[in-house]
Fold:
Amino acid sequence: MPLQKRRQAAALQSTLFVRDTAEILRGLNPHLSPTIFSMDYSISKPRVARLDVVQFFGRKAPLHVDLGCGDGTFLCEMAQQFPKKNFLGIERLTKRVEKVRRKAEKIENVRVLRADTLLAVRDLLPECSVGTFYLLFPDPWPKRRHHCRRIFTRDFLDAIAVALEQNGMLRVATDHLDYFQQIERLSCADRQFEVEPQLPNDFIFPVTKFERKFRDQSAPIYRLTLRKTSPVT
Ligand SMILES: C[S@@+](CC[C@H](N)C(=O)[O-])C[C@H]1O[C@@H](n2cnc3c(N)ncnc32)[C@H](O)[C@@H]1O
Structure:
């Protein structure tokens, strides 16, 4: 496909995501102003107003974001364990977003957005607004020709670094060794982060739906925690 057509297609896709996101936001919270998003249909990149996190949750509290939250099992359990924190799920599949919404109906500190992870982290979340990101069992795209679809890239890490508070964390888990090695390589090479030693108390985290599946198959699970480091002054 010629470059211009590819760009138009990509812009259209992002724009649809943005519009859906705005609708979900308004659907979840009818008090939100319909002008919370400004949309720019230019071909290069849609411009989106940053999410007003305090307005979205109706309170100021440390923010945890589950990227590709699936059916929301982890998100909702965490939210119940830590009622003083805000939990935001990002998921691109409508049916899964609906599942999360149903699960979270009676949990006050959960919100979910149907959005693309990179778009949400890079264009929607305010700078230095997130205490912890979770990227749990991201799609591994095992075929070599599909590796370019993996979410964990330098651009992804750059966006995460901007959205995280100082000393904020990114917690990653996968059952896929090749993907894990790529994640480790990119993480160790990125000076915006330090790799944290694996905490022995990791087991306190709730098990995600996919983790349960992999555990049942006795598959090994690889984990990595990154901490955003202070800028050198
Ligand atoms: C393997 S599932 C893991 C779900 C959940 N984290 C768990 O551990 O049970 C990966 C999830 O990420 C979602 N996903 C994949 N790519 C995404 C993207 N670019 N933006 C948002 N969600 C995405 C998929 O729809 C799917 O729900």
Remarks:
- Residues 50-228 form a domain with the Rossmann fold fold (CATH 3.40.50.150).
- The first strand starts at residue 63 and ends at 67.
- Confidence is low (pLDDT under 50) at residues 11-20, 26-45.
